[in-house]
Structures are given as structure tokens and as C-alpha cells.
Amino acid sequence: SGSACRRHRPRAVAPRTVFRGGSSGVRALDAASGSRRWRRPGFDVFDLAAAGGTLFVRSRSPDSDRASLVALAASGRDLWGVTVDAPVTTITPARGRLYAGTDDGRLLAFE
Q1: Residue 66 — φ and ψ, nearest 5°?
Q2: pTM, two decimal places
Q3: Antiparallel, parallel or unpaired: β 107-110 and 17-22
Q4: What is the C-alpha separation between 70 and 34, in angstroms, rounded?
Q5: Adjacent-strand bridge partners of 54
Q6: Of the given ranges (2-6, 23-27, 93-97), which has the lowest mean pLDDT?
């Protein structure tokens, strides 16, 4: 029986769309048919969260252990992005903001 450890593949769900992340970026899939709506390479995705027509992506910066947080529109278009100077352990969208907890105990909020 397979005891191989597989990397977590983050997912998020929005009305009519399923988002999947991984080491090759983010994909948006039609929830009914499974067909690809769009793909955004260039992210090593650790977490996804969807709220209010926005997809939030937590990834690792390619050149360090710092975290990159990116907000994408439902179309895949960039809304904003920020690099955090510490590893981010969790992201939660609420009331138009993205809250991020860091491994050094901080809680950050982004709009």
C-alpha cells in the first residue's frame, strides 16, 4: 500500500468555478464540466481561498522563504500582490480583506 507522501494540492471553490493550485501555478476549472477556464503559471501555491469574486493565493517567493500573497479576479487578472517578510502559515478572507497569520505570531490584514 502506498505510503509515499504527496504534496498537498490546494483547492478553493467559488460559484461555478473550482480553483486548483500546485507547483506549476493556479488553474480555474468550470465546476460543471471540468473544462479549464484559465491557467496562471509562475506560482508555487501553498494555499488558496476564494471570496467575493476574488481568489487569494499564498505562495513562496522563488528566491527566499518569504511568502507572496496575490489577489486575482475571477478572470485570472492580477488585482494586487505583496511579499511578506516572514513565512505565512494561514490565509483567511473576510469582509473585503485578506488576513494572514505568520509563523512569528503576527496577524496581517490586506485590502
Answers
A1: -70, 155
A2: 0.85
A3: unpaired
A4: 24
A5: 51, 73
A6: 2-6
